[in-house]
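Run: sequence + alpha-D-galactopyranose -> complex structure.
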Amino acid sequence: MDAGSRWGILSNGEWAHRYRLSNDAGVEAQLSDYGATIVSIATPDRDGTPGEVTLGHSSLGGYLGSRAYFGCVVGRYANRIRDGMFTLDEVTHMVTRNHGRHHLHGGLRGFDKVFWNLEEASSSGASFSYLSRDGEEGYPGNLEARVTYTLNERSELRIVYEAKTDEATVVNLTNHTYFNLAGGGDVLGHVLSLDADSYTPADADLLPIGVVAPVEGTPLDFREPKRVGRGMGSAHPQMRVAGGYDHNYVLNGSGFRRVAKLAEPVCGRSLEVYTTQPGLQLYTGNFLDGSDIGRDGVPYLKHGGLCLETQHYPDSPNHPEYPSTALRPGEAYNQETVFRFTVE
Ligand code: GLA
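>> structure
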């Protein structure tokens, strides 16, 4: 087992570690037990030159202070829960209101801000576990979560999420990596396609208003490959609430399937996303304002990266018509997402 290398120390004296995965195709991913975070991914461009394709900090300190969720696992419930409240099996639960009056990304100390236990690690994979105690951030039940990353020779970085509980609860886990396939500048020239005919329109607080609407005829339509920046200046009301894309797409089909492709035409790098999840939050880094300083000392600005967060729909615990995020004793939570890196 590769114990990894020490990366940084917390004020309580605990060390965070870094683990390196690599393949013969020249892809390298670095992970940390802090937040089960993807700290870096480097992939070759069209000429074979390796380069960074994610946003992140060079030191642990950057992650401790940031609210941007660079590369981490988000949980226990990724995305928003209206009014920090939901009723499950006739019991009403209050979770932390850390986003105005709403709950976001698991609360004040979500799964991104805790240490995960390393279960196993090698140059091709690492597995982390975390026990989220009953009552943590208001959630019911002790939740045993496990996240496993593997990198294979097809340059697929696979993320398997597993969980079980001893009391009825809700679970929605995702990874919050910001991609920038050019390694710098903004992502407006990246070309994106999403296999989604519809999305869940959001209100001014970015919570779903409860309907599912077709993307047809709107700037949210990515069914054919399109530059990310193309619809950005649109007067469509949904583009004004978010200052860019920050929307949940209702993915077509079910089971493990390809749902998205992102390509950067100048360097030739591309990324395909496969998942078992029903939804994907496209977030174009609208809140990046220069306060997060990146690895090379460069401040991250608006649209400096984008996230393709495979997940269940936001606020599902308050929408019985959405695919369920409930997990009960005896049930197994199991989701899988693959990021596949290629060049063209
Ligand atoms: C998600 C949300 C965004 C924002 C980012 C973190 O993608 O949808 O609104 O909160 O996380 O900055």
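>> summary
The mean pLDDT is 97. The CA atoms of residues 8 and 16 lie 5 Å apart.
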